[in-house]
Amino acid sequence: MNDYDKCLTSCKSKYLIDLFDYLNDGGISYCVLGQTKDLPDAIPNDIDIVVTSSVLSVIHFLIVKFTKERGCQLVQKLNHEQTACCYVISFQDKEKVFYVLNIDICSHFYINGNYYLSSKSLLDEKMLATDIYNCTKNFFIASPKQELIYYLIKKIVKRDLSLQEFNHLKEQYFKDTKGGQQQLLHYFTRDDVLLIIDAFKENNYKSLQRSIFSLKVVASRSAFNYALDFLRELKRKVHRVITPTGLIIVFLGPDGVGKTTIGDGIKTGIMPAFRKLECFHLRPYSLNKKKKNAEKEQNIDVTDPHGKPSRSKIVSVIKLFYFLADYCWGFLSRIRPLKVRSTLIVFDRYYDDLIIDPKRYRYGAPLLFAKVISRFIPKPDLYIVLDAPTEVIQSRKKEVSFEETDRQRQSYLKFHQKNRNCILLETTQTLEETINNGCREILSFMNSRVSK
Fold first, then answer.
1. What values do phi and psi take at 323, rounded to 5?
2. How distant, in Å, are the alpha carbons of 89, 261, 376, 407 from that of 390?
3. Residue ranges of domains in the chain
């Protein structure tokens, strides 16, 4: 483990311990699910916590209160099941570097809208976690038989089982063989139970791994409960579509200001708050059968972006409408669905660049047309304008004249002043400081969004 990983784990551990103490002091009934042997010293991507239904109804306010008291921020709330939310908490270390902690809290256990276990059963016989020396830790875990059935169902439904996960299941089974057998018989056929137990007894990981695709959980829900679950799941999905948890960011600035380097650092810094990452250059490319490099398609020589003559007025206007169609259809067919699925969507350049630097895109019609079209172009959640003194930018790249770089820079500064959802990021500091400032601004924006 390198110094960065040690620092990351140490920071996360501190806040996780604080969270457990906060729940304990508040008398909250909870337990941590999954592989908890190394907690809080080693932290997985998500911390799975189960609470009662009554606690789940107020957990959002408890998390908000916790973050305010501890000086951190709640930046994301992902309602991924009808009784489960993933809360993403961001915080800084002494060096002002940002980290995030993912806390997945549920009551009843659902996967893909299907009910499997009640929170009452998962919390039944919960116990304090212990370390290898049998000393108690400051958080509760599920009993071995409950952990066994929860984790096994989760792996079966997701059709995925690693050797480490198999060993975890086997360990839970042998901690309470009688209780484990009773739980297995309640959710699986007798033949399947024999197959699972034999795999544990013979330490045969491959056997259970091969069978993971054929094992089926025996459901015992009434038609009425199925109907209620369907309506609740429909409500959750509609809410996710109306209030998507993804984020669309656009990086703007003159060539040489550091868009690529700083953008990559910021993406790495805030990526843990999202499910996935998608990057675009200039536009969505929804009308192209094949993804192409934007610079090549626009016939732009990146070493001499103003080297080719502008297109005629008619061709330029036609190109504007082509851009409009691509942006509108692209947002409907590609960008919006990605945003609903909690994706970080990053654009390097955007339509606004065409207005600020028309020569780059060989635009030959009056700018008035381009400005009118811009009113109908879908807008991102956040613009990030990168800025530095003209001398600094020119020292990095001299693709255009000093006067042109200065003109573009002033245009981007005016753009920042006119747009409320725009962050100005100075790039004259060290790379680490600039990236940290960008992460702080974006996470503060996300915190405001969650608060609303």
1. -60, -45
2. 38, 18, 32, 9
3. 1-142, 143-243, 248-451
